[in-house]
Amino acid sequence: MTYDVVDHSEPRRYLELIGPEVRERIELVVAAASVGPLDREPVDLLYIDSSHEREHTIAEVRAWQPYLRPGAPVVFDDYIHADYPGVREAVEALGLEGEQRGTLFVYRHPCV
Ligand SMILES: C[S@@+](CC[C@H](N)C(=O)[O-])C[C@H]1O[C@@H](n2cnc3c(N)ncnc32)[C@H](O)[C@@H]1O
Q1: How many C-beta atoms surround the C-beta of residue 90 within 10 A?
Q2: pTM of the model
Q3: In the chain, domain spans
Q4: Is the Cβ atom of 6 under 6 angstroms away from ligand 1?
Q5: Nearest CA to 1 among 31, 33, 28, 39?
Q6: Whose Cα sits closest to atom 15 in ligand 1?
C-alpha cells in the first residue's frame, strides 16, 4: 500500500512496469500517511517519503507503529538531505535507535 495526499499519475505508470501478479497486490491510497493503515492489517515494512516535515513524520510513525510486525524495518527517506531537516529532527524527537544506510535511516520495530 502506498499513501499520498495527491493523486499523482506517476505511480500508475510505475505499475505498468511490473507483472500482473505483483500489480494486483499493490494499492494506491489517496490519503495522508498519518491516517495509518486503513485496513488495520500488520505491516512488514514502512517506508516514509512524504512531506519530510518534522511534525508530519512524527505523526506518521505514531500512526503506523501499533501495526508494525516485530522486527519490521521503518525506513526514512532523505534522512541526511540538507533541505529536509525535519526527517532527522523527527527521528531524534521519537528517540528511534537505528542506523544510517546511505541517505536513509533504518529503525527496526522491537521484537517484543
Ligand atoms: C518526494 S515525493 C515521493 C513520492 C514517491 N515516493 C515516489 O518516489 O514517487 C513526496 C510525496 O509525498 C507526498 N506527501 C506530502 N505530504 C504527505 C502526507 N502528509 N502524507 C502522504 N503523502 C504526502 C507528496 O504529494 C509527494 O508525492
Answers
A1: 24
A2: 0.95
A3: 1-31, 40-112
A4: yes
A5: 28
A6: 51
Separation of alpha carbons 11 and 64, rounded Å: 22
Superfamily of domain 40-112: Vaccinia Virus protein VP39 (3.40.50.150)
Q: pLDDT per residue over 48-90, tens digit each?
A: 999 999 999 999 999 999 999 999 999 999 999 999 999 999 9
Give the per-residue pLDDT at 111: 87
- Give the mutation target among 17, 49, 57, 75 for probing the ligand 1 site: most ligand atoms within 8 A of CB: 49
Determine if ligand 1 sits within 6 Å of the CB of residue 56: yes
Average pLDDT score over residue span 7-36: 96
